[in-house]
Structure formats: C-alpha cells, structure tokens
Amino acid sequence: MTDSSLTGLCATAPVSVGPAARRPTRGVTVRWGDKAVRVGGGAPVVVQSMTNTDTADAVATAIQVKELALAGSELVRITVNTPEAAREVPAIREQLDRMGVSVPLVGDFHYNGHKLLSQFPECAQALSKYRINPGNMGGGKKRDDNFAQMIEIAARYQKPVRIGVNWGSLDHELMARMMDENSRRTQPWTAQAVMRDALVVSAISNARRAEQLGLPGDAIVLSCKVSHVQDLIAVYRDLASRCDYPAHLGLTEAGMGSKGIVASTAALAVLLQEGIGDTIRISLTPEPGGDRTREVVVAQEILQTMGLRAFTPMVVACPGCGRTSSTVFQELADSIQSYLRRQMPVWKTRYPGVETMNVAVMGCVVNGPGESRHADIGISLPGTGEVPSAPVYIDGERTVTLKGDHIASEFQAIVENYVERRYGAPGSQRP
Ligand code: SF4
Prior knowledge:
CATH superfamily of the largest domain: Dihydropteroate synthase-like
Family: Belongs to the IspG family.
Bound molecules: iron/sulfur cluster
CATH architecture of the largest domain: Alpha-Beta Barrel
Enzyme class: oxidoreductase
CATH class of the largest domain: Alpha Beta
Structural class: alpha/beta
CATH topology of the largest domain: TIM Barrel
Helix content: 40-55%
Domain IspG TIM-barrel: 36-299
Strand order of the largest sheet: 8-7-6-5-4-3-11-9
Distance between the termini: 36 Å
Protein name: 4-hydroxy-3-methylbut-2-en-1-yl diphosphate synthase (flavodoxin)
Largest sheet: 8 strands, parallel
C-alpha cells in the first residue's frame, strides 16, 4: 500500500476510548465492625450478591456467605423474611467473624420488615444495611407507617438503606394515580412509559420521604429493577438524570445460563459505559446443583472486561477452529483461568497488582505468537500439522519452548515464577 492510498482514510484525532466519567453521586458508607465499604461518591463499582439458603439455617447461610465473599462479593444480601430468620442473623454475623470472613451483611425485607426489625433489635444491629421495597409494605396509611418505622430504625442504628423498587411489586396506588394523570394528557403515554416513570418517581419520592423522616441523604442507595434490557437502560438513565443517590444496578429475573449472563451484561454494560451505576448484582438463576458464586464471577468479569476494575488475572484464549484438531489449548485455558481464580484470595494480599496480569493461551501459529506477545505471559500451542512445540512469551519476548505431555503443569510453574518475580517483592514490578 502506498502512502497516497491512505489519503482521507486516517482519523484526524485518536478515537476516544473508555467509559464516560462516573455520574457524581453521594457516597454511602456500609460498615461492619471497624471496616467499611463505600458505594457511590466516586468509589469503585461494588460487586454484590445474594444467598439462596434459608436464613433460619445459620450454618448453611454463613457457609454460602463465606463462599460468595471468597469469590469476591463485597456485600452479601440475605433474605430476612420470618422471625426464625431474623433471630439467626446475629449468629450468622458471629460465625462469619469467627471464620474471618470480612463482608457486610445486607438484610432483604418485604411485607413484615418493620415488625422483624422492631422485634429483633440484635438483627437490626448485626446487619450493615437494609433493603426496603416500598411497593410491598401494604397500602395507604399502613404502608406509610411501616415505611416510616423501618426508616426510623435505620436512622437509630445508623444503617444505610437501599430503597429498591421493582416492576413486579410497583406501588399500585402510585401507578393508578399516574395512569389517571396520564389519561388527561392530550397525547397519553403508553402504559409501559408510565410504568417506567412510576418506578423512578417511586424510588425518588420514597428517598425524599426517608430524608424527611431523619435518615441522612448519604445513607440511601436506589434501585429500579425491571426484567427487560431496554426498559432497564431507559429507567436508570432517567433515574440518574433526576437525582444524585447512588444506583444499585441489576436486571431482575435475568434468567439461567447464557441468557441470564448475556441479558445482564447487555443492560449493565450500556449503563456502566455511560458512567451510571455504583454497585451491581447479577441475578442469575443457578442451574440445578449450580454454584451460587457464578453471579459474583460474572459481575467481576463485566467490570474487568470493561476496564472499570481488576479482580483476577484475565486469560485471553482463541476460540479454536479447524486449524487445531486437539482440545489441548481449551483445557489449558480453562485450567489456567481456574488456577488463577483459586489463587486470588491469597495472591491479592501477597502480590499487589497481580489482578491486572494478562495471560494468553492460543491454539496455533496464526494469531498465537502475536497475541502471546501482547500479553504479560502467553503460550502458543501447536495447531494441526505444526511442529509439536509451544513457545512461551514473557513480557513480549519469546523465552522457553515447551514440549511433551506436561505442558500444562510446566506453563503453570512458569506463571507462578513470573507472578513471584514481578509482583512478589517491593521494587520488582515493572514501571
Ligand atoms: S489462533 Fe489458530 S487455532 Fe486459534 S482461532 Fe486463530 S487460527 Fe484458529
């Protein structure tokens, strides 16, 4: 290609890359013991999750909270739906503290939250945050009184709250009133548009009422959850433009398997790219016998692949094609990614910065060497008909070539050495 063929093709300035600046919000502090995590106020986007155990079973719940926390959940929500559950919350907190599991517990309340928080003050104290759904606290004066009771308890114990509205339990009276008003418009909106508006109005009006009742404005997080991607994006854009409370993002009832992951990612990625969202939860339905921690991994991977946070070294792997007849590279990519994730609970304190490391596992010579050179550490496995050897690249330089039946264990040892050398001792990190 000659120089003249580029005329008019090149950009006049570098294309912009990366998310928009984060939406400025109030910062909410969630405390447990002498520790704290910040939501909003410019803090990194917080990953949270929710247990699916019976909270009345304190042992099972504490074990699952521990698993979620070890996977990287920075807040864990537990349902508090019965007196038996509320009674066990302090025991769950104690077990976690005994096990050295440092994560705050959020209580998820519906219908009877005002009663449970009043009747079980030790539960109210042991929780670090309350989730309140104003759409299912009764109607009329009863709803107002129940809501006020929960907010007064939150203020008394100095607990932040999430006012979480959900289209499946939207305040019927508010919706009816807004539909009435809509009917008087010269050009009435669709019922769906009114519903989206009602979600935002419900969240903000309840937050303002909570402040009038004495809860500080920097103790309130809002969520407006729906289960359709485009509705969620529209609702949160609107919410973000109308208030400065931190936003908890999540596509409710996202579903199972790849559908749940894709739908959640599609919705949250758009919002996060626009600077909207201060904490996220991925509402995946686990496969039968599936691992609850999957929702934490997915949340982390959304944030990390978007460049918003780093949690675990990432493995770049090619998809494979007809040029490679073996599954060696698939197995190696899988085993290295699992190995790296398993190490992180220890590595994150021992090797600061290791979470930003990139590892490439490639299937053949077409893109293998190039992709491996761009990674911190990479391996290019032999494709069909290629010499059965696997060159390893470290910091862009070709180093050893692995051969034989033990490529996986030898490559893992090379990764371990690299981590120790680069992240292990002060001064060993590259500039
Ligand atoms: S690197 Fe090789 S094996 Fe992997 S997708 Fe590309 S051509 Fe196929």
